[in-house]
Amino acid sequence: MLLSRQSRQGFRTGPYRRQRQPPCCRRNADPLPTLDNALAVRDTVARLIADVYGGKVHPRIAAGLAPLLNMQLRAIETTDLEQRLAKLEKLLAETTVEAEEHLNGKARAREDLANRSRENTFSVSDAPEPTTKEAAKW
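Now predict its structure.
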């Protein structure tokens, strides 16, 4: 019977092979920081690159984390844009209301001025008849 070289050396082969724990799951691994803003994601990516280069993290582990970090960054950017847009919409609504109030106030002032000028004007029929001395001056 021919045995493989691994079998002859005492290693198990096949489905009974012992599964190793990946390097990132070891107890001495640094925990990921809170990724709640774009700067934290950027710093984590920089740290991950340094750890791969330094041999602390296996490149396959880093390759698995990269899409997750990208997804987190996109979610943060989307949330930031939504918050900024909500602020702008609120500011626009407030400004529109103030502008309408201002314009309505100006329109009211114009109407009041027009009403006052109508009240202060006299028509020819409302004018008193000039006296003879006044008529002679004209």
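Helices lie at 5-8, 38-54, 59-120, 132-137.
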